[in-house]
TrEMBL record:
It comes from Tanticharoenia sakaeratensis NBRC 103193. Residues 16-191 form the Glucose-6-phosphate dehydrogenase NAD-binding domain. It catalyses: D-glucose 6-phosphate + NADP(+) = 6-phospho-D-glucono-1,5-lactone + NADPH + H(+). Residues 195-487 form the Glucose-6-phosphate dehydrogenase C-terminal domain. This is Glucose-6-phosphate 1-dehydrogenase.
């Protein structure tokens, strides 16, 4: 990896956001650009052009952006002069990107003079509009040799729709111009998995089925579906998190050492993992996957309603999904990977848990607890490793479990950036290592689809769990059949 590309200021650019009045833009994209400007990585000549159907003036859009910064940027980082400088970079065009008869002349005028700059089109719209927007950009001759397009997830709702989106956008953009974003790959701790494995011989030496008993990958939230009930009911936990984010984490955890840290070498290594996932047949799904919905319970110190109450109608959509996966490679033969994602659990946590096999050393009878390496993706980014040490309160050689723990924030004394900060500017740089290649998307859908089809056919029950709990009993049973337990239940 050429680290100079990753830390230096980028060249002058024009960034066009389709869907610029939406929640993602206000909550994530604009604050990310602002923080990158504070870090000196955004040149003064950069232009960020928002487009949406709302008939706003530039001044009105800048006002909305200021409100977003006040809400989503730490107050200590809100310097008035810098905020004004950032707002001066913002422009707005009232435009429906999927409409060929829209106000494209206004967008052309906003981009005038920037033909030689890096030009990025960010699609923060419904995925079924991606092809139409790409077609209109082509028809309006707005695609230059230095143009990239960023596609937000989800890339489709199944294998067929993903291919249609990829084919539709690929008709007008070359694969090297298409940046499929998965913000989990932009998280520093997900990237750090590569460093932990391959820069530390002690860990790399035991990173295989010879020493590892099983792996858990969890993304748990305490919130419910909130204002996203409509979207979420058409997606569910498996599509929303596991098919993309958590399978990407799995591929980083399990990949073989890439030939280099260049983009295609890393992505080649990742896609081989996804393609090596053992297929789950419809008959296997009942024993290898669990789906559930939260019901009323206590969360955050208050009583909260169940999913169906929030939704307002009956639904089989899961708010909890757990899947048992295996990877058919020599390194991982027989090692189960347990992947789960859910709303309304006990606490918010995204983590990877590596449980090592017990060692029968014969010297310490009580020292047969499994050692566990925990990679905390968020919050409190860091790494902990359980070890056995002599109990200092005893005169004999009794053991006590201890933990080696590193929290990256206090250790490195830096603010951990939001994932979008890195990803937005990597698209300008044309640096795709943290973005998803087409074959990765299709490999992930290929593995997930049998589970979706089985659930759609109701071949597995929809379990329930109380809001504020750790999920349904069936999820515990999924691991108990192998003699394992989720991290929070480990003795």
């Amino acid at each position: 990896m050429d680290t100079s590309k990753a830390i230096n200021a980028v060249e002058p650019f024009d960034y066009v956001i389709f869907g610029a009045t939406g929640d993602l833009t206000m909550r994530k994209l604009l604050p990310a650009f602002y923080y990158r400007m504070l870090a000196g990585q955004v040149p003064d000549s950069a232009r960020i052009i928002g487009t949406a159907r709302s008939p706003l003036s530039r001044t009105e859009y800048q006002g909305r952006a200021r409100e977003a910064l006040d809400k989503f940027v730490a107050k200590a980082d809100l310097d008035e002069a810098r905020v004004e400088a950032f707002l001066n970079m913002l422009y707005y065009v009232s435009l429906n990107g999927a409409d060929p008869e829209g106000k494209w002349a206004d967008l052309k005028a906003s981009l005038a003079g920037g033909e030689g700059k890096a030009r990025v089109f960010y699609f923060s719209t419904a995925p079924n509009l991606y092809r139409a927007v790409a077609e209109n950009l082509h028809a309006q001759e707005l695609i230059t040799p230095k143009t990239r397009v960023v596609l937000e997830k989800p890339i489709g709702i199944d294998q067929e729709s993903a291919r249609e989106i990829n084919d539709g956008v690929g008709r007008y953009f070359q694969e090297g111009q298409i940046f499929r974003i998965d913000h989990y790959l932009g998280k520093e701790t997900v990237q750090d998995i590569i460093a932990l494995r391959f820069a530390n011989p002690v860990l790399n030496a035991v990173w295989s089925a010879e020493y590892i008993d099983y792996v858990q990958i969890t993304a748990a939230e305490t919130v419910g579906v909130e204002g996203r009930a409509g979207y979420y009911d058409g997606s569910g936990a498996l599509r929303d998190m596991i098919q993309n984010h958590l399978l990407q984490v799995l591929s980083v955890v399990a990949m073989e050492k890439p030939a280099s840290l260049d983009a295609d070498a890393v992505r080649d290594a990742k896609v081989k993992v996804l393609q090596a996932l053992k297929p789950l047949t419809a008959e296997m799904v009942k024993d290898h996957a669990v789906r559930a919905q939260y019901v009323a319970g206590e969360s955050g110190g208050k009583e909260v309603p169940g999913y169906l109450t929030e939704l307002g109608h009956e639904s089989g959509t899961e708010t909890f999904a757990a899947v048992r996966a295996e990877i058919a490679t020599p390194r991982w033969a027989g090692v189960p990977f347990y992947i789960r994602s859910a709303k309304r659990l006990t606490r918010k946590v995204s983590e990877v848990v590596i449980a090592f096999k017990k060692t029968d050393h014969g010297l310490f009878p009580e020292g047969d607890r499994p050692q566990v390496l925990v990679i905390r993706i968020q919050p409190d980014e860091g790494v902990s490793l359980s070890i056995e040490a002599k109990d200092p309160s005893r005169d004999d050689m009794a053991l006590r479990e201890a933990t080696l723990d590193v929290s990256f924030g206090p250790t490195f004394k830096v603010r951990y950036p939001d994932a979008y900060e890195r990803l937005l500017l990597d698209a300008v740089r044309g640096y795709p290592v943290l973005f998803i290649r087409r074959d990765e998307v299709e490999a992930a859908w290929s593995w997930v689809e049998p589970v979706l089809e089985s659930w759609k056919a109701n071949k597995a029950p929809v379990e329930t769990y109380k809001a504020g709990s750790w999920g349904p009993e069936a999820a515990k049973a999924l691991l108990a059949r192998d003699g394992h337990a989720w991290h929070e239940d480990m003795a």
